[in-house]
Amino acid sequence: MEFGADVKNLAFTFMVAIAVGGVALAVLFPLLSGSEASKRVDQISTGKRDPKASLRSRLAEDSKDSRRRQIQDSLKQIEDQEKARKKKLTLRAMISQAGLDMTPRTFWLMSVIAGFLFFFVPYFLGVPWYVAAGSGFVGLFGFPRWFLGFLRRRRMNRFLNDFADAIDVMVRGLKAGLPVSEAMKIIASESGPPVGPEFIEVVDGQRIGITIDQGIERMYDRMPISEVNFLAIVMSIQSKTGGNLSEALSNLSRVLRDRKKMKQKVRAISQEAKSSAAIIGALPFVIMGALTLLNPNYLNPLFDTQFGNMLLIGSGVWMSIGVIIMRQMINFDI
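^ that's the sequence the OP posted. Answer follows.
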């Protein structure tokens, strides 16, 4: 069956029209109607927001971004303050952290007295003058600093034992409807030293215009431990961004108790190594004492001759180095 020329021309014209229309539709339709995919690609590539987005969602995003920026700024500020505190740890700050009521001048006076005692007592007992001089140097610069550090560590450990309970008291007070200042007054009046006196300083500071977060930051100056820094971070962030303070402090209390359990577990696990180190460190003195009892004159050359004194000094130096190395191996900071 054959069609006429007119029908063929009409069919050809119709097919050409359809092809041209399809090409035009493919090219012009995105420009006329706007494709959602192209809009999405444009938004992602340019970072522009859809002007038709709801006002509520934009306000929520702005609030989250603002809160996030405030938290980041607070954490950075506290980190910078902690670095500055570590750099400027002075003798006056160490005396305050040890809980002693004295001035640096009094400390140095007591150090000089200890140095004289450490020098003259061995010297009058017949020890060579250079050994007595070394003992006096230890009494002037070593023993007072060690004793101050011992008091400082003991006070911090006593503070840590009661700090989690103090946070729990604050949480219960907040859940009962008390303000933060009243909850801190309860801690200050009911807790023993050193937790009670530290919170008394915070409560007294509020009477002269010091805010709670600033008072806790000052507490961290007097008690530079990580747990107090955690409380300072929580209070600083809550004062700037808001939120449920009782829930945040409850989480902090749980973290403090978990850290305490971990420290006790590490101490129990490392006790065997500490006992071994103590036995190794005490073994030379035990052997010297036993030899002195069995044969009193056997070790006299070590004390009566110059070469023996040099051997004693060298042995003491090497033994001190070994004790320091063992101490670094068996001590863990958490």
